[in-house]
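Q&A log
Question type: sequence-to-structure
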Amino acid sequence: MLNAYSSDNSNNYITFQDIHVKDSNGDGVRYYRCDYGNVRRVRVEFCNMSGIRYVQCHRYTPTGDLGGDRLSIIEYCEVSGDNQNYIAHGNQGFAMGSVGGSHVWVHHNIMHEGYGESIGVYNNTSLPDQGWATVEDNIIYDMRKAGIYIASGRDTIVRRNLIYHTGNSTYYLTYANGRYWGGPGLGVCNEIGDNQNYQSNNVYFYDNLVTGCHGGLGISSQWPAGEDAISNIKYFNNTLVANNINTSIGLGGRAAIQAGFGNEIKNNIFWLYDSSVEDYQFRGYAPYSGITWDYNLWSSDPEIGCAYSWHCERVKGANDPYYALPQLTRTSGWHNVSVGEITPDDFTLQSSSPAIDAGIDVGLTYDFAWNTVPYGLGTDIGAFEFTNLDSDINDDGKVNLEDFAVLATWWDNKNACALSDWCGGADFDMSGTINFFDLAYFVENWLR
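Response status: OK
Response body:
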């Protein structure tokens, strides 16, 4: 068969759900010039091309019309072994995504062990009033090409996704330093074949987790300098650990980013976990003066050993914390892991992390785990707010005088706490009495 399931030419409001597709000669599920098409709880395996593909859908839906049934949705699906044709003929698709359309919501899916991109949003700016895609809450592992790739995209949000590579020797992009690496984790690009009049802008990547990839995040252009400008690309509060290269700018060898505006990379954790296995914190081919870097936590100086760049010093912000390990919950064993071994909890912060309260308000209200931002005194760097504030007696996300007032109310009231829910939680050692032991424990988190 060419495509296992296909809806073409204005067959709108078509839903494929609860089906299993295997060994399709083309795509697993395809929509062509259709609107409001949903794919739900579909499993796709070993297709020659893409797992789930939308082509030129929602071409005439106004960008502001996003309510109710005005979207095409891919949800709770699993795609594996896609793009078998890539190996034989060099044709490349993606596990799931959209080409030349808009208004697509891709969420709560799993993609693994494939040869193409995992999630692609390509050229969704080809017509006026087009754009809009949201990619969120997906798990991606062991994909040969990019995890989430936006090409000439506009008004797109990429958030709360987990992307990792186990070191699988079948599905890998490159072999370096004794390890197999997956494709880039997060990327945005203006490709040379796309319409030059509609280029990447207003793309937000935040609260994503990336490890084991050839590149953590990237911005690039294939157009010659001066002919386009990538603008308003935001990388906020992502956590990138143990990638061969944590950040890459201008991979196409062009300098178009220099002409852009509004591009920001802030509040991210860049952890070069093992310098004997991973190569660089940063690699850049372009001047990238159109990017503002600040409030990022680097585990080491990105200017040292920086590759191919004219101005490595530009990636360092005036408000970056001093170079330090991020003190994540997972402290070792990031390389050559088993499937399922990497979880979001690995990326959470320990109480000693220098990322706590070290970021800046960039407008986010929730973190990866839906905790309020800021949870403590200030915004934390990375995808997670530190929430294990044992001294936060009244559970308002802060340790301050209001908590101290609770502790003081019960001070030295002998054996009273066991009868009052441990004095509202202020009797930390549950001795029955609020004393200097409880006070010492309390001040460890003072004003967080």
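Response note: The CA atoms of residues 184 and 215 lie 4 Å apart.
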